[in-house]
Design brief:
heterodimer, A: mainly alpha, Rna Polymerase Sigma Factor, Chain: A, Arc Repressor Mutant, subunit A, 9 helices, B: 4-stranded antiparallel beta sheet, 4 strands
Chain lengths: 189, 232
């Protein structure tokens, strides 16, 4: 993110803290798609993800005055989104997830074996990325798609920086295993 | 963690290996990026792994981009909720907020110049303070030993002249933080700008022509300052 963009986001937050509705619209327009996609990858339900972004930005409206600018606004937004998404998952009676369980559960709807039939490596890779555990999906998305640094991921997920690095490494190892099961060899590991 | 963790832990990744994804995403600091580049150049296995990571990186972006966007319902719901919130009494914005808002209202280029101006102003402040102190010491000694009819404090004498002003142009790459620091150290504020790329600074103390010239000379030598001249 550029310095100018970061400064503008901070100014928007300052204006939102003063009750500026237009600033809220601008901030929403700037970030809502990424917030939605991050939430959707966690909750896997479009309806829930849409409800989630409304809740996230309503929190921003209410809490803008407490934003201290120690992290980028986008990092703050993703941290709120993650918290809301995990809360939404916990509310789903059929899953009864706590964070620990969420981390361990594989998505049964995304069987990596289905990718075996797919000759296209890119498509198989996307299938396997979807089949990762929530914990691993989350960190892969934050680093690759949301372009968050080690420090920012640590802040969003609430884990030490070294854990961030090793968690992504193991997510990639898992991805490699899924790909191998799907008949895709990439030469690593 | 996961069932395969035990097996994985038998093969701990190297310090460089775990940084490869951030290198692919371009979010490493310069030092780590250089370390990774050097390791990639000398380790073919690592380079092979990096090629795989670039593939993961690309497909993760494609995957996320394919997720689409939320409907307008989400925004309608949000602003309906905001409208239902109790009216909030705007508090007076803090000094830092006002400074941020001022800089944000400028164009990116002007913003960069503003940063430089701030840094220059800080240096001006330091120079002014130093010059004033030196002069003050001299005046105090003369007053006491020679019984001259000079004011005991130079501030009282100078105050009647009003605050000094200067026009400053910052370099395009000057940062806001540098400018802010400069303004603080020089006890100056931007009171107008940027006309023709020049910002008008006002110092919080008066000074004579020699002091101002000396101060602006120092400011002119600052890395983030292109030009600093006295203004009426």
């Amino acid at each position: 993110m550029s310095v100018t963009q970061a400064a503008s986001d901070e100014v928007l937050i300052a204006r939102i803290a003063q009750g500026d509705r237009l600033a809220m619209q601008v901030l929403y327009g700037r970030h809502h798609v990424r917030v939605y996609r991050f939430g959707l990858r966690l909750v896997r339900d479009e309806q829930v993800a849409e409800d989630l972004i409304s809740e996230v930005f309503l929190d921003v409206w209410r809490q803008a005055g407490k934003f201290e600018g120690r992290s980028a606004v986008s990092t703050w937004l993703l941290a709120i989104t993650r918290f809301k998404a995990l809360s939404a998952l916990r509310r789903r009676k059929d899953l009864e997830l706590d964070e620990e369980a969420a981390n361990a559960i594989q998505d049964q709807s995304d069987d990596p074996e289905t990718a075996v039939q797919k000759k296209d490596t890119s498509e198989a890779l996307r299938e396997c990325l979807t089949a990762l555990s929530p914990e691993h999906r989350e960190i892969v998305d934050l680093v690759y798609y949301h372009e968050k640094s080690v420090e920012e991921v640590a802040e969003i997920v609430g884990i030490p920086e070294n854990t961030v690095k090793t968690r992504l490494f193991y997510a990639r190892k898992k991805l490699a295993e899924l790909l191998k099961a799907a008949g895709v060899e990439r030469g690593w590991p | 963690m996961m069932a395969l963790s035990k097996k994985m832990l038998e093969q701990e990744p190297s310090e460089i290996e775990v940084l490869l994804p951030w290198h692919a995403a371009g979010t490493l600091n310069a030092r780590d990026a250089r370390r990774v580049e050097e390791a990639l150049a000398r380790d073919p296995d690592l380079a092979g792994q990096y090629a795989a990571i670039r593939g993961e990186y690309e497909e993760t972006i494609h995957l996320n981009e394919s997720l689409g966007a939320p409907s307008a319902r989400a925004m309608q719901k949000l602003f309906a909720a905001i409208d239902a919130e109790p009216a909030r009494t705007p508090a007076a914005p803090s000094l830092s907020s006002r400074i941020s808002t001022f800089f944000a209202s400028l164009s990116p280029r002007t913003l960069a110049w503003s940063a430089s101006v701030g840094a220059i102003a800080l240096l001006l402040q330091a120079g002014i303070i130093g010059a004033v102190l030196m002069k003050s010491e001299t005046s105090t000694f003369q007053t006491a030993s020679l019984s001259m009819n000079e004011p005991i404090t130079r501030e009282l004498g100078a105050a009647s002249a009003g605050p000094a002003h200067a026009l400053v142009r910052f370099t395009p790459d000057a940062r806001v933080a540098d400018i802010t620091a400069l303004l603080d150290s020089y006890q100056a504020a931007i009171v107008d700008g940027a006309k023709g790329g020049m910002f008008r600074l006002q110092f919080n103390k008066a000074m004579n022509q020699d002091e101002l010239t000396s101060l602006l000379g120092r400011m002119q030598r600052e890395k983030i300052v292109n030009l600093a001249v006295a203004a009426p």
